[in-house]
Amino acid sequence: MFDFPASPADGTIYAPPTGPQYQFSGGAWRVASSSVPIKTAETRNRVVNGAMQISQENGNTAGTTNNYYLADQWEANFSTTGTVSYARAAAVTPYGSVYRAALSVSVADTSIAAGEFACFRHKIEGVRIADFQWGTAKAKPLVLRFGFIGPAGTYSVAVTNGALNRSYTATFTIPDLVDGYYTIVIPGDTTGTWAKDTSHAMTLYFAVAAGSTVQTAPGSWTAGLFVAATGISNGLAVAGKNFNLYDVGLYLDPQNTGIAPPWTMPDEAQELAACQRYWHKYFSYINSGGNGLAGANTYAHITISPTMRTTPGGSAVNITYSNASGLTSNTINADLWQLRVTVTANGSYYSQADLIFQARL
């Protein structure tokens, strides 16, 4: 049984996890011709960790604080009088990915105030989308495709710029607790400021609830920061409800096909390297200097690989010493870090610590 999109437009393509693709034509779904290849958007996914494979910082542990990273590059983003928790969930998707982003409602918020909201948030740096040419007359369209499951209702997607003053919103309607894939066509923004360097260029929001002041009408670019479209349901209205987001892909669509390419599971090693551009942890780094003089400062230089997005903030945790103390650090640039310890007494010494580097958007 296939879960065809509701209220399709003529020409809409539906690609189930298995079997042929279907096209809506003349009021009915028809098998697309195998002799005529269907044009799709480009295959390169601009989302980092769209399959939630990597969760360096928190694993599958749930968090209840705003800006909590449930997986690398995926944040909890909410303001509510209820209580919500976010986590990476180990649950196989229809395409075979093994993880999902999960939002759970612990305490309901039955009446969403004007500025309240609950979203999954994903930030993208400028170098990943520079070829979109947004902010110019040559701005190109995109296709966003993602998997979603939750209680029946209408929920929302938003795309905003890093300057927080341009927004595009859309809605999608889901049946009750059925895994499904949804496609949103996003026109290129010909105005606004869209970074093309290593700074924050774009944010994706997947909202399950939003108040009136953070909503805007769907389907067009709007000045201001909005995380959802008007018409969104209140997904926080009932305690115990759960939402999953998974298999997220954002694709450039220069031919304006409106069709996402087939989902491809990212290579895990490549995805880890992409995530380590923003957050990286070295476990049990040992700075051993052999014999030292009492009071002498000794230094170690750590090469950070892969190179991070920008000069990171660095910290050392879980520090242990032998005949040493006073571990301090100094970030030098995006791929080099300096560690210093002070020798306590003449003789051999060492220090050991977990090193954390953070260059998130």
Walkthrough of the structure:
The protein contains 1 helix and 23 strands. The chain is mainly β and 361 residues long. It has 3 domains: 37 residues, no CATH class; 236 residues, Jelly Rolls (Sandwich), CATH 2.60.120.260; 81 residues, Immunoglobulin-like (Sandwich), CATH 2.60.40. A hairpin with a 7-residue loop joins strand 1 and strand 2. The two termini are 41 Å apart. The model has no long low-confidence stretch (mean pLDDT 91).
Topology, element by element:
Blueprint: E1 13-14, E2 22-25, E3 28-31, E4 69-71, E5 74-79, E6 83-90, E7 99-107, E8 117-125, E9 142-149, E10 153-161, E11 166-174, E12 180-186, E13 200-210, E14 215-216, E15 221-223, E16 228-229, E17 242-252, H1 268-276, E18 279-292, E19 297-303, E20 313-322, E21 324-333, E22 336-343, E23 347-358
Parallel strand pairs: 14-16
Antiparallel strand pairs: 1-2, 2-3, 4-5, 5-8, 6-7, 7-17, 8-13, 9-12, 9-17, 10-11, 10-13, 11-15, 18-23, 19-22, 20-23, 21-22
